[in-house]
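Bug #77: duplicate submission created two jobs. Keeping one. Sequence:
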Amino acid sequence: MIERRNLKPMLLALVGIGGGCVIILLPVLASRFFHAAPSGGFWVMAVIATALVGEAWALVFATRMHRSSDEFQQERAKSAWYWGGSIGLAMTFPISLFIVNGGLDLVDPALSMSRPLIMAFACGFVLPCVGLIAGYFGARFSHRGNEA
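Kept job's structure:
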């Protein structure tokens, strides 16, 4: 049986993740409902705007979930996100190197990628790494004054 003190954080997580996903998918759902083909600058801006609103929604509920948890749950969650995220990101690095260095040709020559596509893939992999590192150092240095 789920304890009452664990129920509120779980409900907040469910609302945050579910609501964020629905908000992010709004342009796709609207295009299907109105039978419109997604294209053009308005489509791109709508996708970006709903992604930002959906992420903000999820962040608000993640913050509420974290604050409603007790100290032990908070520390467990921080440790899990730090180690799980770092290890998960590190595990994708060899796979990305395989793809960037033409490894898909070994799997199936039909999957060959052009140089611009390889560069786009590499930039797509590096961007989350840079965000992760920037977020880590931003959080680390924002709490420096709190150390005893």
